[in-house]
Amino acid sequence: xxxxxxxxxxxxxxxxxxxxxxxxxxxxxxxxxxxxxxxxxxxxxxxxxxxxxxxxxxxxxxxxxxxxxxxxxxxxxxxxxxxxxxxxxxxxxxxxxxxxxxxxxxxxxxxxxxxxxxxxxxxxxxxxxxxxxxxxxxxxxxxxxxxxxxxxxxxxxxxxxxxxxxxxxxxxxxxxxxxxxxxxxxxxxxxxxxxxxxxxxxxxxxxxxxxxxxxxxxxxxxxxxxxxxxxxxxxxxxxxxxxxxxxxxxxxxxxxxxxxxxxxxxxxxxxxxxxxxxxxxxxxxxxxxxxxxxxxxxxxxxxxxxxxxxxxxxxxxxxxxxxxxxxxxxxxxxxxxxxxxxxxxxxxxxxxxxxxxxxxxxxxxxxxxxxxxxxxxxxxxxxxxxxxxxxxxxxxxxxxx
Length: 401
Fold this sequence. Notes:
Layout: E1 4-8, H1 16-28, E2 31-36, E3 40-45, E4 51-57, H2 65-73, E5 77-82, E6 85-91, H3 103-140, H4 145-151, H5 155-186, H6 199-218, H7 220-228, E7 230-233, H8 246-250, E8 255-256, E9 263-264, E10 267-268, E11 272-278, E12 281-290, E13 292-293, E14 308-315, H9 322-332, E15 343-344, E16 352-357, E17 361-368, E18 371-378, H10 383-399
Antiparallel strand pairs: 1-3, 2-3, 4-6, 5-6, 7-11, 8-13, 9-10, 11-12, 12-14, 14-18, 15-16, 16-17, 17-18
Helix pairs in contact: 3-5, 4-9
Transmembrane segments: 121-141, 153-172, 206-227
Organism: Sporosarcina highlanderae
Protein name: DUF2812 domain-containing protein
């Protein structure tokens, strides 16, 4: 057996004439077709030969042995197949007759393929439209596309939608091309055996290979997220993480944590931190923490003072995304408040600082370099105290590799 050589094949599998001509050109160079894959054609290196190649279509996906024997008796040897397309070869000197001498008869076989391809095209187009609608809602319904991108919720689904969209496009092209071929055959116009595979086709096929590999690699995203993402009960003592702790804000020795109200999988979900990962924010923390201060009541006399804090921390891959993420976080957490209540504040040690101050609620959005922190605090501590803690945590983010 000679050395095997792999070549990027024309991705338009329905272009019969181009494939036949390409196989003949390869044979003239000493590369003889052995197998057709989705992206590559396998050739065996040997002596250059003048060969003829023909592609036959079998809608039943299998040509009978009797038909193969009949073709062999006529000088055509079966080589390989791709889906419904069977490839046969014959040395030029054998002068084998064409597989199909009646173009109109051949068109009836192609009619069945035309119907099958049309069904596939309709299905993929409908699937693409549905996925685009679903993804549009995820990306743009709240007007926070950068936040969605950073969180990594829809990256894999979007890449999958792009692949399905490309499949729909190729299905439509295949349907139109096969339909045009059938029309030509009905008009007694044979397949163009001299159609060439141009440089542009090679570039397009190479792009398809790269795109398909990229799609395959993207499948690792949810796997990495599954491995890296975890949720743990927040320790009562301080931890060396870039998260704002309730004790650091309250600064009251009588602050305690009550018994958990909701436990699941061994996690106190009222006092927990989640570690997350996405391609555009490989380091993320999401925390909730609550407690009560013994002997202290709310200023309006509504009961025992029970402050809480929610924190989201991001270390971005691209620092240039920080401003857009801040803007989207403000939109996402704005709720019923007026936009004017979210005030941009100049801070000497932060790139950006946006503050909202309500009756008992404070929301702070801050960024520095590739670090972004959002804090929603419920309690009566001063805003400056929270900002000071955020500034300290930004230094920890900068030190994370």
